[in-house]
Backbone:
């Protein structure tokens, strides 16, 4: 059984792989372009306690 854990900065590239198709192929996000790994690392999900 898979264990869930909070996302870390080390997960950024993998999370961006999941997120990118939504940016590129849908109107669901507020992004016009896929963010870079550095930009994606700066989002608040990684600053949560």
Residues:
């Amino acid at each position: 059984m898979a264990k869930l854990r909070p996302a870390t900065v080390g997960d950024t590239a993998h999370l961006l792989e999941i997120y990118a198709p939504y940016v590129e192929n849908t109107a669901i996000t507020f992004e016009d372009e896929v963010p870079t790994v550095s930009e994606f690392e700066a989002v608040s999900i990684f600053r949560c306690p």
User: Anything to note?
Assistant: The chain has two helices and no strands. The mean pLDDT is 89. The chain has one domain: 9-47. Residues 12-25 form the longest helix (14 residues).
